[in-house]
TrEMBL record:
PANTHER family noted in UniProt: UPF0750 MEMBRANE PROTEIN YITT, UPF0750 MEMBRANE PROTEIN YITT-RELATED
The keyword Transport is assigned to this record: no
Organism: Fuscibacter oryzae
Pfam families assigned to the protein according to its UniProt record, in alphabetical order: YitT_membrane
Name under which the protein is recorded: YitT family protein
Location(s) in or outside the cell: Cell membrane
Primary subcellular site in the record, as a coarse category: membrane
GO cellular component: plasma membrane
């Protein structure tokens, strides 16, 4: 059965490209509205907002310490795919604003679209044995070992990050960011189920 369900390298490649492009699109909605999110992407956004540094390089550097944990706890293939995914997202997030902009985007719609689009992107990465590093690696490790859903663990981490964001981000932007965070983590909690989908 594992031979039937295992993804080919081509399928993995398209899954990583699809997933990172969807996440880059989600970030485009987020940054246009001046919102924040959770996990390492949220931390990178906060640093980017506070310093003016580009999101891509900050996001790439923040994730570096987590690859050793991913390698030790989950394996080489997962770590390599996650490194590729983080690199692709860093590049796509830097390039996409040059080709895509919004003249009219309601804050609520920006958050909702971010949640669903990014959720779809992360699901694709998870199904192809990858993540966007950081807390995602820890969340997947905990889910595999204990059954506690990755989405719920990430939501707890996000709540802490949102609390810290009040130091740098206007309150109304943080409040408008909440629907996107809830939708994103609910999408992962509901749809990323090892008891329903075979590992690949």
């Amino acid at each position: 059965m594992s031979d039937i369900t295992r993804h080919t390298r081509f399928e993995d490649a398209q899954g990583l490209i699809f997933g990172t492009l969807m996440c880059a699109l989600g970030l485009q909605f987020l940054r246009h509205a001046g919102f924040i999110t959770g996990q390492t992407a949220g931390l990178a956004l906060l640093i980017s907002y506070a310093t003016g540094w580009a999101f891509g390089p900050v996001f790439f550097v923040i994730n570096l310490p987590f690859y050793w944990l991913g390698y030790k706890r989950i394996g080489l293939a997962f770590t390599v795919k996650s490194l590729i995914s983080v690199t692709l997202l860093s590049v796509f997030a830097g390039v996409m604003p040059q080709y895509l902009a919004f003249s009219n985007l309601h804050p609520l719609l920006a958050g909702v679209l971010f949640g669903f689009v990014t959720g779809a992107g992360l699901l694709a990465l998870f199904r192809h044995g990858a993540s966007l590093g950081g807390i995602g690696i820890v969340a997947l490790m905990v889910q595999d070992r204990t059954g506690f859903r990755a989405g719920w663990l990430q939501m707890g981490f996000d709540a802490v990050l949102f609390a810290l964001a009040f130091l740098w981000v206007p309150t109304d932007r943080i409040l408008w960011s909440l629907p996107g965070m809830v939708i994103l983590n609910a999408v992962l909690a509901i749809n990323h189920r090892r008891d329903r989908y075979a590992a690949t």
